[in-house]
Design brief:
OB fold (Dihydrolipoamide Acetyltransferase, E2P); 73 residues; four-stranded antiparallel beta sheet; single chain
Amino acid sequence: MAQEIVEAPLAGKIMRVHVKAGDKVNEGDVVCTIESLKMENAILAPVSGTIKEVRIAPGQAIKAGEVMVTMES
């Protein structure tokens, strides 16, 4: 199985995490929501697969490029 890494596309604060380890997601499903510059940005799953690890939590500050979720496709 191929491993996919979902990185933060922008710096901000994690508002909501919509997945947990073991969840099955489809390409385009919302993984988490980041607030940046007073706007909420939905971060989508790049592929269909299973969430392997979640490295973020609500309220956490995040920098662009940080790993948020790993998944297997």
